[in-house]
Amino acid sequence: AQQQQQQQQQKQQQQHPEQQPQSSSGTATDPKPVELRPRDFTEVPKELDACFEMLDEDGALRPTIITPGNVWTMRRKKQLLADFTTSTWREADQKRERNAAFDLLDALTKSGALSLDHASLHVLVAATHTFDKSVTETVVRDSVNPIDKVERSMLIMASTVQELPPAALLNPALIERVKGVSPKLFALENAR
Fold first, then answer.
1. CA 20 to CA 129: how far, in whole Å?
2. How far, in Å, CA of 88 to CA of 90, rounded?
3. Between β-strands 61-63 and 127-129, what pairing exists: parallel, antiparallel or unpaired?
């Protein structure tokens, strides 16, 4: 019965999307609803570079290129109760499996005629935070907390990827402390 209710609710939401409640960012400082819109994920690296240049005062963040190896190891179960099996995939095996996955996707969507409403896309984005000096030199000689620098880097990345202001990503109790350490992050948020 509960499953039927959930299915009915999903059908109603699909038929009447204008009646769905708007989600909010969940912070006391920014109760504005989040606007859901399509996103071009190929633009994320460019957006990150622009934010690094604008907000990273130390120039410590650098884009990282992830290059997978030529040989992959696949660990999977042939059946639900079977033991895991491990196999090695070379480039030809990878190509065959990728083509099989796209063939399955093509069959499930009837060559794109059906949409995949409840599918998720996982995108991997990386950046490297580097220090000019060792962590010990940064703390002892410069009297700078390296955690604050890394925290700023994480907020730059997270706010860009999630398309949310930094305050929406922080525990409300920590916002004032982070504002004191990285005011530039919040100055741009107020200018939006």
1. 40
2. 7
3. antiparallel
What are the tokens at 63? Answer: 């884009």
Asked if residue 85 lies in contact with residue 164, where contact means CB atoms within 8 angstroms, the answer is no
Amino acid at 59: G
Which burial class, exposed, middle or buried, applies to 61 when counting CB atoms under 10 A from its CB (0-12, 13-18, 19+)?
A: buried
Long-range contacts from 120-125, C-beta under 8 angstroms, 24+ separation: 121/41, 123/41, 123/44, 124/66, 125/44, 125/45, 125/48, 125/157, 125/161
The predicted-structure confidence for 131-173, as pLDDT tens digits, reads as follows 888 888 888 888 888 899 899 999 999 999 989 999 999 999 9
**Top-confidence residue, 7 or 113:** 113
Q: Quickly list DSSP for the chain.
A: -HHHHHHHHHHHHHH-GGGSPPPB---SS--PBPPP----GGGHHHHHHHHHHHH-TT--EEE------SSEEEEEESSTTSPEEEEEE-HHHHHHHHHHHHHHHHHHTTTTTS--TT--------EEE--SS-HHHHHHTS---HHHHHHHHHHHHHHHHHT--HHHHS-GGGHHHHHHH-HHHHHHHHH-
Question: Which pTM does this prediction carry?
Answer: 0.64
At 44-89, the pLDDT tens digits run 889 999 999 999 888 889 889 999 999 999 999 989 999 999 999 9
